[in-house]
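Suppose you are handed a protein chain with no further information: no name, no annotation, nothing but its sequence. What can you learn? This example shows the usual starting point.
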Amino acid sequence: MQFLKILFWCLLAFVAALFTYGNWEPVTIHLWSGLEALVNLPLLLFVTFLIGFLPTQIYHAALRWRLRQRLGQAEATLASTRALVVAAPPPAPVYTAAETTPPPLPGELS
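A reasonable first move is to predict its three-dimensional structure. Written in structure tokens, the prediction is:
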């Protein structure tokens, strides 16, 4: 499986290199106040990709961090609840001398 992943990334890098080689042309970008910038097309596409990708990546990293925090808190609560249940077993029922049989458990027919 690792081989397929490496093969995929190598193929993607090869296609990107072919695209870059075939489209290495300056592109004019009209900025504010009549300014113009000459930028190579592959560089422009890479920058626009990062502008769209980075905010999404940051959002998902923050979401993943928040969910890990919540999961850790839930696990700590569960562990403390289990410790309380194990440490304090329910008390044994006390019967009087007049009773010969214990009372029926909930859900049992008498």
